[in-house]
Amino acid sequence: MYGTGLLKGLAVTIRHFFLPKFTEQYPEERPNLSPASHGFFEYDYDKCIACRLCERACPNKVIHIETEKDENNKNKVTGYDMDISYCLFCGLCIEACPTKALMNAQNFETTVYHRKNTHYDFLSPVPHEMNEKFDAVQAAYLEKHPPKVSVARPKAEKPAPDPNAPKPKPKPAPKPADADAAAEKPAPTAEKEGE
């Protein structure tokens, strides 16, 4: 009894031993990211109109914006800070931005050793340099190791309908219910209580 169960379990294990591996050995193997992946943020100061919609949309109040009026009496951003330690990466700030000044970058390498390093000032060059460095490393890796393209089987094409083939006969319509039988049955009536 114990021997057959052990052999069945080992058969499953040995079968999986010969299957191809699907685990990525990160960081030696870099992931091939989808263009829709949510990573770190990229902020374009020139597009920002200081409307503060991203700040209001953030459920955790991660974004803090400081503004002042310029010579044309328009709002101008003087400080754009994010505390990433509380960020959900939900994307509500990106959806709220009418000018697309805040976008997702593909950089997901945002780990730090101290919590104080999760506070980013987007008017300083540090977040932009971090995204550029990630893009350069990713591009260099993909140049050396092009992504494996999976070859999908071509779908079987449906043959074109033969114009000379006989057309199927239409199904006959269902017969109407017998009207005489329905007329003979009396309709149900409500009876009064006490009769």
UniProtKB/TrEMBL annotation:
The keyword Repeat applies. It is found in: Cell membrane. [4Fe-4S] cluster 2 binds at C58, C87, C90, C93. The keyword Lipid metabolism does not apply. Keywords: 4Fe-4S, Cell membrane, Iron, Iron-sulfur, Membrane, Metal-binding, NAD, Quinone, Repeat, Translocase, Ubiquinone. Its main location: membrane. Its cofactor is [4Fe-4S] cluster. It is a peripheral membrane protein. GO terms for molecular function: 4 iron, 4 sulfur cluster binding; iron ion binding; NADH dehydrogenase (quinone) (non-electrogenic) activity; quinone binding. It catalyses: a quinone + NADH + 5 H(+)(in) = a quinol + NAD(+) + 4 H(+)(out). NDH-1 is composed of 14 different subunits. Subunits NuoA, H, J, K, L, M, N constitute the membrane sector of the complex. NDH-1 shuttles electrons from NADH, via FMN and iron-sulfur (Fe-S) centers, to quinones in the respiratory chain. The immediate electron acceptor for the enzyme in this species is believed to be ubiquinone. Couples the redox reaction to proton translocation (for every two electrons transferred, four hydrogen ions are translocated across the cytoplasmic membrane), and thus conserves the redox energy in a proton gradient. This is NADH-quinone oxidoreductase subunit I.
